[in-house]
């Protein structure tokens, strides 16, 4: 539910907060930090539950729970803007397919073959792909400050991967999970760039709910195929708690 908050926070002007009591929870730094924390927990938990819940089941039930959480709050707004949703259904369906369906399933499938640390680190490369694809598609300029920030981030990622020994990177080998994660992060960068065409009339929660509704049908078809292939799982206490975390926090 919080995946697009970075883009939303960056694209919207900062709201003025006059009440001192509201400042601590309205801080964009706090909100973005929590976003990163919740998403990191998503990677860690998906890796831990890799043998308990199949990847498509993870994604399907995650978004079912997210829809149940969101819809009671945003249903009136969705009804008011039904004409907007009908008008922009194509971009909403595309964003739902990428952001709700394909991206998450790719991450969960990849984490069956690589570590949660790799998942979080590859997630850190998304800003690099956003800037690169933005330049390729629209020749968006890259400032010196942005370039410096990207360079420092990449050095930090490399240092963590190499455990502080950058010379050891020469022996680093990608596995299947790493490759799928890298493709997933590129896909998320494309999703982020496509957000420029999302309906302006919808609030952030209503937009998220609408793309969940559009993304669920193809995800449901994939889930049926996964079950038909023989994938099975049990709703244990650990599985239920994990799915609740997936659906509420990340």
Throw out a few tags for this protein:
mainly alpha, disordered N terminus, 250 residues, 12 helices, 72% helix
Q: How much helical structure, as a percent, in the residues?
A: over 70%
Assign the structural class, choosing from mainly alpha, mainly beta, alpha/beta, alpha+beta, or little secondary structure. mainly alpha
Stretches where pLDDT is under 50 for at least 5 consecutive residues are 1-21
SSE string: HHHHHHHHHHHH
- Please identify the oligomeric state: single chain
- What's the end-to-end separation, in Å? 6 Å
Number of helices: 12
Strand content: under 5%
Task: Tell me the Rg in angstroms.
Answer: 19 Å
Quick recap:
It contains twelve helices and no strands.
Notes on the structure:
It contains 12 helices and no strands. It has 250 residues and is mostly helical. It starts with a helix and ends with a helix. The N terminus is likely disordered.
């Amino acid at each position: 539910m919080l995946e697009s908050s970075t883009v939303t926070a960056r694209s919207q002007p900062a709201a003025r907060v006059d009440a001192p009591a509201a400042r601590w929870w309205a801080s964009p730094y706090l909100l973005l930090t929590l976003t990163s924390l919740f998403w990191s927990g998503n990677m860690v938990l998906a890796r831990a539950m890799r043998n308990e819940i199949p990847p498509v089941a993870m994604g399907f039930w995650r978004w079912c729970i997210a829809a149940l959480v969101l819809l009671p709050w945003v249903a009136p707004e969705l009804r008011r803007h039904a004409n907007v949703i009908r008008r922009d259904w194509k971009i909403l369906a595309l964003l739902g397919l990428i952001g709700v369906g394909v991206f998450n399933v790719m991450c969960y499938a990849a984490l069956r073959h690589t570590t949660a640390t790799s998942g979080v680190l590859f997630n850190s490369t998304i800003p690099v792909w956003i800037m690169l694809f933005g330049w390729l598609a629209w020749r968006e300029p890259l400032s010196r400050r942005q370039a410096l920030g990207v360079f420092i981030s990449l050095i930090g990622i490399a240092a963590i991967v190499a455990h502080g020994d950058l010379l050891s990177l020469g022996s680093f080998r990608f596995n299947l999970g790493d490759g799928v994660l890298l493709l997933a992060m590129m896909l998320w960068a494309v999703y982020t760039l496509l957000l420029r065409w999302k309906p302006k009339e919808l609030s952030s929660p209503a937009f998220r709910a609408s793309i969940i509704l559009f993304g669920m049908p193809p995800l449901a078809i994939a889930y049926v195929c996964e079950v038909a292939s023989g994938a099975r799982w049990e709703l244990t206490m650990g599985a239920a708690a994990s799915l609740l975390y997936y659906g509420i926090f990340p």
